[in-house]
Design brief:
Its EC number is 6.3.3.2. The protein is of the alpha/beta class and 186 residues long. The chain is built from four helices and twelve strands. Helix 3 links the parallel strand 1 and strand 2. Helix 1 runs parallel beside helix 3.
Length: 186
């Protein structure tokens, strides 16, 4: 895709996501800064913040768990090298919140490589978001779980492990697909 295509997809994705009742009613959203070929998230993060939503962004810990920080705009993001310099992520500057801070979120936006027709998400294999989902389950909180993807990343079936949990919805530039519980129950 060209740079213009990438931006157009990011803008469409932000519009679709912002129209979700789960995000319209949220006071706190745990999100992420896209990397590499992932659909762009900065427009969405800025729009949520402009609405007065507290946006939590992850900071990768040495054990692949996630601490969190409050997003204060694009200038508050700092590059952080991980894996001996093999990977650079943009992480929030400022105070680090403990991994359990995600349990305060009304909605959690999850990255992924794909989502299937059952709502099962395929991640990158590091287990960071599997830990997030397990933490939410242990805390007995049930924020809306939403994956942001390109249209072609929604597939018929992905591999599933016993610890995997389905998401509530996938948002793509062309639409929203829901799984499981309706938006009114999130």
């Amino acid at each position: 895709m060209t740079a213009d295509d990438v931006q157009a997809h990011a803008d469409a994705l932000a519009r679709r996501a912002l129209a979700l009742p789960e995000l319209a009613e949220a006071r706190t959203v745990a999100a992420y800064v896209s990397v590499g070929g992932e659909p762009g998230t900065l427009a969405l993060l800025d729009a949520l913040r402009a609405r007065g939503v507290r946006v939590l962004l992850p900071a990768l810990l040495p054990d692949n768990d996630l601490a969190w920080g409050v997003y204060r705009g694009p200038d508050s993001l700092l590059p952080a090298e991980h894996g001996g310099g093999r990977m650079t992520l943009l992480e929030p500057a400022g105070e680090r919140l403990r991994p359990r801070a995600v349990t305060e979120a009304d909605a959690v936006l999850l990255p992924g490589l794909s989502v299937d027709a059952r709502g099962m998400r395929l991640g990158r294999g590091g287990g960071s978001y599997d830990r997030v989902l397990a933490r939410l389950e242990r805390a007995r909180v049930r924020p809306a779980l939403v994956v942001l993807l390109y249209d072609w990343e929604v597939v018929e079936r992905v591999p599933q492990e016993p610890h995997d949990r389905p998401v509530d919805a996938v948002v793509t530039p062309s639409g929203v697909r829901r799984f499981g519980r309706p938006a009114s129950e999130t």
